Amino acid sequence: MIDSKAVMALVNDPGRVGVLATTDRKGYPNVAVFGSAHMPDELTLVIAMGETRSAQNLLETGRAVFMSVVPDENPMNTQGCRVYLKLRSMEKDGPNLDSVKERVAAIANEKAARMIKYAVFFDIDSTRPLIDWSPKQPE
Fold first, then answer.
1. How far apart are alpha carbons 61 and 81 in whole angstroms?
2. What is the C-alpha separation between 27 and 15, in angstroms, rounded?
3. Which CATH architecture describes the domain 4-127?
4. Per residue in 59-81, pLDDT tens?
5. First-to-last CA distance in the chain?
6. Which of 11, 107, 135 is nearest to 67 (CA)?
7. Whole-angstrom Cα distance, residue 50 to residue 85?
8. pLDDT tens digit sequence for 67-120
9. What percent of the chain has pLDDT over 90?
10. How deeply is 49 buried, as exposed, middle or buried, from its count of CB atoms within 10 A (0-12, 13-18, 19+)?
């Protein structure tokens, strides 16, 4: 486990690269880059998402892992974390969807914002450092 304030700082870092890993109900994996991910508090991760394989997998399994990597010129100084997630909700309309679309428009552009179909809210189950040799699974 990594301190929740440190996780929040790593996920919300504007220079980070964010990757979401999901699987479908048969266990087939998918991984995708997400620039929209952010943590509004220490218990929640929010992602703006289109009609994608990631969205379909979440509807099937409700589980994901988000990896936040803050690169450094010296790879040995790269920072990051892994955030294990349980789906709370996928909202297809309303103020939360409007809010994530506005965020995407500000970060990327209007074209990207128009592709957003879900405001996805996750509960954080557990966290791990970017590099962790522990074989223990989260409980």
1. 22
2. 31
3. Roll (2.30)
4. 999 999 999 999 999 988 999 99
5. 11
6. 11
7. 18
8. 999 999 998 899 999 999 999 999 999 999 999 999 999 999 999 999 999 999
9. 90
10. buried
Q: What is the pTM (predicted TM-score) of this model?
A: 0.93
Distances (CA, A) of 16 to 12, 36, 50, 86, 97: 8, 11, 21, 22, 23
List the structure tokens of 135. Answer: 């074989």
φ, ψ of residue 4 to 5 degrees: the values are -65, -35
* Residue ranges per structural domain of the chain: 4-127
- Residue of 69, 87, 89 lying closest to 79 (CA atoms): 69
Residue 98 in tokens:
């409007």
Place of tokens 């980070």: 16
Question: Around Cβ 24, how many Cβ atoms within 10 Å?
Answer: 15
